[in-house]
Structure formats: structure tokens, C-alpha cells
Amino acid sequence: MFGTAMARLGVEHADWGLYFPEATGSRQSPIDLVSCDARYEEILANTPLQFNYATSRETDILNNGYTLVVFPRAKQVDTQAGNRSDQTPNVSTLSGGPLPQGMEYELAEIRFHWGRENSRGSEHTVNGKAFPMEVQLVHWNTRLYDSIEEAVGRPNGIVIVTLFTQLGREHHGLKLITDALEDVQYKGRQKTLTAPFNPGTFMPDPQLRDFWTYEGSLTTPPCSENVSWILMRYPLMVSHSQMEDFRRLKTHNKGDQPRPGDDGTMADNFRPPQALNGRYVRASFQY
């Protein structure tokens, strides 16, 4: 949903404000997170995040020319347990943590930002350090709004959960996606995966769910604000081979030539950190 206009225009980060005025706002994302400046709040430590994620029987993946977007399409599944019928969730939802009590946010899409080299790639940085890739799970408030389009830019409308990556062993849950990237190598290519996929595969174990949170914006145009960010403390382990699979994606349509001065490789698709402008970051753990 987000970033397609910018990909179509080929606008550089520094010029986004010329086309998307909200990009010049005072509460923009991403940011450089300075861990020693984050404010520990006991209420966050005592209110765990609730990832009620459903298994998708069909998952769409799309190369939009700027990034890879994953759209889980969960369906209702009934299982019989004796004379009782159990139902799995038909949508993936998030609640708890820093989110308003009683509010529930539905997962809409998963986005990835990565670098040409492993020394950069994430949009957010921690103490000035970037990670090879940042995985963003975008949610919208189903209690207050009727669609994600309506929720964008509105109070308590959008929540994005971020996971950083570090190099190590292959990530089994991500493998379903990386194995299919060759089929969406070029801009505009889309594929439906039919193997079961649960977004919870990206989440760390419950005892490792420390997080930071702050108020910001979308990191791609229109850069709308009123976005609550939740950044998981512990990174996701992915292999070098999986990172290379992402770096083989292209920013142009098959048969077309890349823009002048561009080799067509989809990489370094991250926005630089923005000024805090008086905002502060809260933490669920003591540093």
C-alpha cells in the first residue's frame, strides 16, 4: 500500500517533501534509537504484547519497485475435537504493550528494508548502528476505523512492529518467502504462496520480547504521522544466502532499462534517520 507512488515517481528521499508535505513533519520516522536515553516504564514490562497471529493458507508477495511486501490472507479453519469445534483465528491481531487498552490492531502487510551490504539496510538504527535488514509488520486499528486507508494518519490508527536482523543460521519461517523471490524478481511481479505461513514465526520467544516504543510516521510516502512504533530488542537471525536472495530483486519491470545511474538492484531502500524533535523513546526493560 505504502511507497508505491514514490517508486513510480522515482523521487529521492531528500525531495519527498516536495510531493508529500507530511514528509517534512516534526514526528517523522525512522529515528536513531539511543538506548541509554530510553525511558523505562514498568507498566510496559507488566503489559506483554499479545501477538494473536493466524496461519495463512494463502500469502501474496509483491515486488512494488521499492521493496518486497507480503500480504498474509488468513482463512477460517475448523478442527474437530471430539464433539467440540475449535476455530483458529481468521485474522492476525496485536494488542497489549503500549497500545491503548481495549484496542485491537489487525496485521495488514509485512515490509522489508535492506542494504546492498550487511553494514546497512535497516531504517531505524540503535546507538548509530544499522542492521542488514529491518522487517516491519504493519497493523491498523479495527476498533476505530473501517479500513487501513481510513486509519492512516489518524489517532491510534497504525502500529508497526519492527524486527532487526543479524547474520547467522537460516531462518526457517523466512525461507518460504526467500524461496519464492526469484518469481517476483522484477517490479510488478506478484505470487501467491499456498504453503501455510504464520507471521508469528518472526517473533522472538515470549521471554525475549523486550521492546522500545515511540510515536512517529510511515517511512515511505505519504509519510503520514500518528504511527506507533514498537521495535523489538532482540534481532531475527537470517543467513547470508537469504540476504542475497533479497538483493537479487529489481526495481524495474522485466524488459525495461533501470533509471539512469541506477543498476536496477533493489537495495538500500531505507529512509535515513529523522530528528527526534523533542520526542522520547520508552522501553519495556531497564538498560
Description:
The chain is mainly β. The protein has one domain (4-10, 31-79, 87-283): Carbonic Anhydrase II (Roll). The protein contains 6 helices and 17 strands. The protein has helices at residues 4-9, 16-19, 42-45, 148-151, 172-178, 240-247, and strands at 32-33, 39-40, 49-52, 56-63, 68-74, 78-81, 84-87, 93-96, 105-114, 125-126, 133-141, 158-167, 190-193, 211-217, 225-232, 236-238, 282-283. Strands 2, 3, 4, 5, 8, 9, 11, 12, 13, 14, 15, 16 and 17 form a 13-stranded mixed β-sheet that branches. A two-stranded parallel ribbon has the order 1-10. A two-stranded antiparallel sheet has the order 6-7. The radius of gyration is 19 Å and the shape is globular. Residues 76-86 have low confidence and may be disordered.
Short description:
With 287 residues, the chain is mostly beta strands. The chain has 6 helices and 17 strands.
Provide the fold topology:
Elements: H1 4-9, H2 16-19, E1 32-33, E2 39-40, H3 42-45, E3 49-52, E4 56-63, E5 68-74, E6 78-81, E7 84-87, E8 93-96, E9 105-114, E10 125-126, E11 133-141, H4 148-151, E12 158-167, H5 172-178, E13 190-193, E14 211-217, E15 225-232, E16 236-238, H6 240-247, E17 282-283
Parallel strand pairs: 1-10, 2-17, 12-15, 12-16
Antiparallel strand pairs: 3-8, 4-5, 4-13, 5-9, 6-7, 8-9, 9-11, 11-12, 14-15, 14-17
